[in-house]
Amino acid sequence: QVQLVETGGGLVQAGGSLRLSCAVSGNIFSVNSMGWYRQAPGKQRDVVAIVTSGGTTNYADSVKGRFTISRDNANKMVYLQMNSLKSEDTAIYYCNVVARSRSYAPETRYWGQGTQVTVSS
39-71 b/e with 16+ CB inside 10 Å = b? Predict the structure, then answer.
């Protein structure tokens, strides 16, 4: 089994910062892309940022210049540094990885349970 556990969410004032962490554990052979998604009440889940196995990063336009994604391959961690937070960043943030459990297994997408980020204006 593969488990993703997010930490670091909470309540912050507009303009503040938070850092989310996601620990990947379990039966993992290799990890491809790692990323963060978010879902606000009444809205669909959208991508926030992704980092590939090669280190290439992509961001949603709404967070470019404010959020930074990074990964620690040795420890199977992915992080999201969020600066200059806005009220519209309020959402549940989900960690996501694409990984193989065996060398011959297909790539599978795994999700964390989510962590709440609330930005007060």
Answer: eeeeeeeeebbbbeeeeeeebeeebeeebbbeb
